[in-house]
Amino acid sequence: METEQSHDYLLVFDNTEDTQTLAMLSGLHYNRSFLSQSNTVTAVFSSDENGNGAGFRAVYKSWKPKPIEVLGEPGGIVLITQRMLEFEKENGQLKRFVENGQQERADIMVKLKQLSAQIRTLTDENESNKLDNEVLKKELAEYKSNKEKMEKEMDTLNKALDQRPSEDDVAVLRTELVHAQKLMDEISQQKDVEISEHLNSIRLLNMEREKQRCVMENLQKQLEDTGSHSKESSELVRSLTSELEDTRQLLVTCQKDLEDAKSDSTQKGKRIEELHGKVEANLAELASCREKIAQLEETVRVSAREIDDSHAMNESNLKKLTQLSDKLEQVIEEKKRYETEMSKFEEKNDMHTNSIRRLELSNMDLTNELSSLGSLLEHERQLIDEKNSIIASKDQELFSLREDLERSHIDNEKLKSQCESRANESESLAKQLLALQENSKELMDRISKGEDGSKAAIEQLKIENQKLQEEIGQLTASFQEEKNGLVAKANEQEKVNREERKNAAEKLKQYEHQKETLERRLREAEDEVSRKAERFVEMEKEIEDDRRIANERVQKLKEIIRVKEASISEARKQLEELSTQLTDKNRLLREKEHQVEENRRKIEESVNRIAEAEAKARNLEAELSQSEAQRLAVTDSESDLRTQLSDNEALLASFKQQVEKVVVVFYGIRSVP
Q1: Burial level of 286, CB count in 10 A (0-12/13-18/19+)?
Q2: Whole-number percent of the chain with pLDDT over 70
Q3: Residue-level pLDDT at 499
Q4: Beta 9-14 vs 41-47: how paired, if at all?
Q5: What is the mean pLDDT of the chain?
Q6: Residue 353 confidence class, pLDDT cut points 50, 70, 90
Q7: Rounded to whole angstroms, how far apart are CA atoms 150 and 577?
Q8: Would you call 603 exposed, middle or buried from its count of C-beta atoms within 10 A (0-12, 13-18, 19+)?
Q9: DSSP string covering 248-298, please?
Q10: pLDDT of residue 611
Q11: What is the pTM of this model?
Q12: Which residues form a coiled coil (predicted)?
């Protein structure tokens, strides 16, 4: 800052970025003080009685106020007072806005406290949800292990089902049993037919033997009768006896043959009885084999039925297993879906935690912003106070300017009156000069008329004229100087007034701009605060909704997990029941397989026995064929004997006729006297 003082002004140069010149009039003949300021410097000037600048005081300012337009006319002062009142109103409004902002800040701090409490509750709920998720993960791991165990059991059951006898083996056994039964039926039918034929042949032989015995008894009786009546005909009897002896010998031989045949027949009967016993034993064995075969067939049917039932049970178990596997797959899919949902829920929780952190950060930012806004509001309040003080100082300056203007008006009036008085004086002096000139002319005339006048008077008049001319010159010079000084002062005052008006207008514009910026900033702050409050309310609602949705989802997940646990427990029970049923079925299948093996072994033994019986039957058939050949030979011998017997009977008949004739002759001879 630089200063320079002249005869009329004290200049202060402000060499800052906004270079301005502050000036004070000097040379006034009374004490005064003058305040002038730039954007960075406030200068206070003072002068003494002689108008010399006694000193000045400059104050640097850190803040640039807006200029206020000061008009030199009284209307400008009214405008300034109106603007000052408006500024006071606006300051009151700004104070109210600041108070409202502080109240809203307090409300926002309360809401932030509530939000922090809600955030803490949400974090606690998230921690509890994380613990629940860990518990659910452990349960899911247990379910996975149980599922793997169940899958292993299902694999073992499937392997056991694959290792069981197939339907083809059962069908082959059935066909073999049916074929063996058919063979046994055919063999038994053939044996029954052969045995019935042998029994019929034995019955016929017994009947023929009885007939021969009866015939022989009749012949013996006839012979005895003929022996009693053949005393007279001894010769004939002797001849007949010789013949009878021959026939007896023949009969003895025949009897021997018959005895041999009887012994053979008894042996054959015994053999036949043995064969009958063997056949009956074979029949009993066949019956037992049939019964066993029937039992085996029944057991095979039962086993087939049980196998069918086991197949049906296995199919149903397979269906149940498939259903359970489907259910397990569904459970796995649901578990995966729940895991994805849980991962999504965890992601959402992470997002919520991140959003909560962001909210906390935004809360901190908002608190910082609010604190900064509070500090800014305090700063604005301080600025407003400073502006109020500046406005008060400006009011004082305006009042001082008013006083200066009034003084300048008074000075102007005084100067005008002085100018008028000086003009009047100059006119009076001019009139006096004219009068003096006229007097001088008159004197000159008088002098010219009367040269005898005193030269001293003329000289005195000349001296007075010169003095008057000098005084007039001085007066005109002083008047001109005063006139020029007054004109310069008036011009300078007008310049100062214009500059002050301009500065006041600029300051008013700056104040208005600053007011507008403050109002805009306040509106923006209010909008920001309201928007953030609405955002806080929306975030509270969203957090409440998310927490409610999360609680509902957690409850649903817990309910679904409880249902799934119940279904899994039921499935586990069903699997345990199925495993017990499958173990029972496997045990029954092993027993049935053991029974089938035993039945197969028995069938093989029975088939071997049947083969042995068939061999025995073939041997019996061979023996029967031999006995049949012997029987045919015996029948041939019997036919020979029968022919002989028929011949003997014919001879006996002839002998009877002869004996009857002899008897008739004897009785005729006896009856003749």
Answers
A1: buried
A2: 23
A3: 79
A4: unpaired
A5: 64
A6: low
A7: 12
A8: buried
A9: HHHHHHHHHHHHHHHHHHHHHHHHHHHHHHHHHHHHHHHHHHHHHHHHHHH
A10: 64
A11: 0.26
A12: 98-160, 202-355, 426-630
CA 551 to CA 539: how far, in whole Å? 17
Nearest residue to 437 via CA among 403, 472, 412: 472
* Amino acid identity, position 361: L
What's the rounded mean pLDDT across residues 361-372?
A: 66
Burial class (CB in 10 A: 0-12, 13-18, 19+), 365: middle
- Three-state secondary-structure class, residue 70: coil
Is the pLDDT higher at 236 or at 204? Answer: 204
List the one residue out of 15, 321, 42 whose CA is nearest residue 154. Answer: 321
**One-letter amino acid of 612:** E
Position 129, amino acid: N
* The two structure tokens encoding residue 670: 């006896």
> How far apart are alpha carbons 389 and 395 in whole angstroms?
9
For residues 31 and 11, the answer to whether their CB atoms sit within 8 Å is no
CB atoms within 10 A of CB 404: 20
Q: For 101, how many CA atoms within 13 A lie in the half-sphere containing its CB?
A: 28
- Between CA 521 and CA 293 the distance in angstroms is 112
In tens, the pLDDT along 62-107 reads: 333 344 444 344 454 556 667 667 767 777 777 777 777 677 667 7
Q: Name the residue among 545, 454, 500 with its Cα closest to residue 80.
A: 500
Q: Region 618-632: what's the mean pLDDT?
A: 67
Task: Give the three-state DSSP class for 55.
Answer: strand
Domain ranges of the chain: 1-64
Q: How far out from the chain centre does Cα 230 lie?
A: 137
**Angstrom distance (rounded) from CA 261 to CA 639:** 13
CB 39 within 8 A of CB 16: yes
Nearest to 659 by CA among 220, 216, 218, 240: 240
End-to-end, the C-alpha distance of the chain in Å comes to: 231
